[in-house]
Amino acid sequence: MSKLYEEHESRVINTDGQFKYVMAITLDPRTNYKEGIARCITSRSGDLMFRGNTDRSELHKIRGSSLEHFEIGERLNIKNEKEIIEKLVKEGDDFIGLEDPDIWIDEKTDLMHVYFTIPIIPKNKNEKVNVHLGHAFGKNLDSLEMTMPVLLGTYKIGAKEVSIAPVNSKGFRYNLIESKDRQNDTTYSTVKVAISKEMGEPWEYGETVFHPKEHNISWIAGHASPGPLFSKNFIDVGKNKLLGVINGREVNQKVDDKIKYGMFSVGLFVYDYENGKIDWVSPEPLIIDSEAKTITFASQFVETGKGEGILYAHVDDSFVRAYTLKAELLKSVLPKQFI
Q1: Is the pLDDT of residue 127 over 80?
Q2: How far apart are CA 80 and CA 77, in angstroms?
Q3: Residues 194, 206: contact at Cβ < 8 Å?
Q4: How far apart are CA 115 and CA 95, in angstroms?
Q5: Helix locations, 208-325, DSSP H
Q6: What is the Cβ-side half-sphere exposure of residue 132, based on CA atoms within 13 angstroms?
Q7: Of 220, 199, 238, the residue nearest 112 (C-alpha)
Q8: What is the pLDDT of residues 75-117, one digit of tens each?
Q9: How far is CA 323 from the centre of its chain?
Q10: Is beta strand 319-326 parallel, antiparallel or unpaired with respect to 186-196?
Q11: 2 pLDDT more than 70
Q12: Which alpha helices (DSSP H) does 1-150 contain, by range?
């Protein structure tokens, strides 16, 4: 895919003496996207390019002087966090901190809902990390209260990286999440539907709508994760359909006795939110950051004008970059039925 974006030179968030790495920003539209949350890494145990690394995280507020410059603020204080986490963590398990936040504003109530990953490493090292999709709500970032997760994970299934879909004609949402599937000795990240009738109440797992093994697309052949969906104001790809970005990773490789991850990059997809189906995934990635060694992963999109906006992605789980996207350029790579 030809270069269809403008990569901004500077980094979006200035790290400080407390944090060397920052990633996964999400912004509050009610503040003109000048306030939000970021995932800050408190410790990193290994090499991101190889299986076995563990990042420990905290969620912190961020505040921006512009859409291209944010500062890290205080740790996000969520009421009932300790009590909820204690219910989820068994004796001997290791909770490594909240990850990968997403802010969604309920236009009817003006309440803020925040979704995030709750990763728990089991005491039994033969078991896989248990991943829940957590939830908190409040009037703003200063009044959040945690509930039980909207989706509970198990060793066979997980939920993270939510993508909020519009309400369909039946009155509920076919949201998208990153989940997982293990086949033989290989674990895949898959895109799965999460059915939501009430955004603050428990959701239901739906069908897997994209499995990397079932598609002959090399850049997303190992792992897939849903990213932000664009509004129809930015680009219209048809009735009950939205264009969005999807994060994908190449298949893992075995190097000596280690598992080396492939490149994670950002592509495009068309989502039928009425029926909960993915109609198309780009055959090539859209964005691979110029400094990326292994990861470019999109987390937030902000419209800045008609048919133009800024996409935020984190690079190598270490810093956040902004990219300018223009709808007219993206149309050049879409199948004709979506233009």
Answers
A1: no
A2: 9
A3: yes
A4: 17
A5: none
A6: 21
A7: 199
A8: 999 999 999 999 999 999 999 999 999 999 999 999 999 999 9
A9: 16
A10: unpaired
A11: no
A12: 81-88
Task: Give bridge partners of residue 301 from the DSSP assignment.
Answer: 311
| 253 closest CA partner among 262, 265, 244 | 262
Q: What's the rounded Cα separation, in Å, for the pair 79 and 253?
A: 42
Confidence at residue 39, expressed as pLDDT on a 0 to 100 scale: 98
Tokens encoding 120: 């728990």
Lowest mean pLDDT among 213-227, 243-257, 321-335: 243-257
Backbone angles phi, psi at 236, to 5 degrees: -110, 120
Question: Are 225 and 244 in contact, with CB atoms under 8 Å apart?
Answer: no
Round the CA-based radius of gyration of the chain to a whole number and report it. Answer: 19
Strand 69-75 versus strand 13-14 pairing type? parallel
pLDDT at 259: 82
Count CA atoms closer than 13 A to 206's CA, side-chain side: 21
Q: What is the mean pLDDT of the chain?
A: 95
Residue pair 198/109 in contact by the 8 Å Cβ criterion: no
Tokens, residue 237: 């790809």
Parallel, antiparallel, or unpaired: how do β-strands 35-44 and 21-27 relate?
Answer: antiparallel
Tokens of 48: 């991101």
What's the gap between Cα 65 and its chain centre?
Answer: 24
Asked if 304 contacts 32 with a C-beta cutoff of 8 angstroms, the reply is: no
What's the rounded Cα separation, in Å, for the pair 322 and 304? 13
Tell me, what amino acid is at 175?
N
Mean pLDDT value of segment 119-133: 86
Q: Is the pLDDT of residue 269 over 70?
A: yes
- 141 Cβ neighbours under 8 A, 6+ residues apart: 28, 35, 37, 61, 76, 112
**Placement of tokens 């000048």 in the chain:** 34
- 76 burial via Cβ count (<10 Å: 0-12, 13-18, 19+): buried
